[in-house]
Amino acid sequence: MTRDTHTWPSQRLPAPDPETYSPRQREIHDSIASGPRGGVRGPLAIWLHRPELAARAQELGRYCRYDTTLDPKLSELAILTMARHWGAEYEWSAHKSEALRAGLCPELIEQIRIGAPPVYSDADERIVHAIARSVLETRQVSDALYAEAIETLGTDRLVDLIGVLGYYTLISMTLNVFHVPPLAGGAAELS
Q1: How many angstroms separate the Cα of 14 from the Cα of each of 41, 49, 54?
Q2: How far apart (Å, rounded) are the C-alpha atoms in residues 87 and 66?
Q3: Which of 12, 98, 168, 177 has a CA that sits 20 to 30 A from residue 47's CA?
């Protein structure tokens, strides 16, 4: 979906009104808000329309975001790669600063944003990006790339990486279908 950087489509589905939350919506909202995210925004707010989806997705998201064997820098690289592929502006705006804080090079972030060939600081970054691109472009990973990923990342980190990629695909689809704008009304960067 091509988006004009000066306008943003109206969000199709606003978050449920907290005044009308069911007891289960309130319970899930409070659980998410009191956790490391500190609030219920973006896709989680949309998922609150279906509280059980929100509950289960936030559990998976907590693992993918905070508890995997991947360094935060590598997780953020994977997340930005997914956001770029899907054109998920909210995700990009939410994770660009996180990626910088985690130590991802600003030039690498910009290269991903504009679709330029990336320059990596280490083999781990190269493999994470190569795996993500391969999955997105071919829906597979070649035997050679798989062997290289096992050698570089190991089994645990590769399994966690695939989980992160899958979770952020779910997020990106949710954001795009419901037209969730960039974080805090920021400008679109992926158009």
Answers
A1: 10, 9, 15
A2: 23
A3: 98
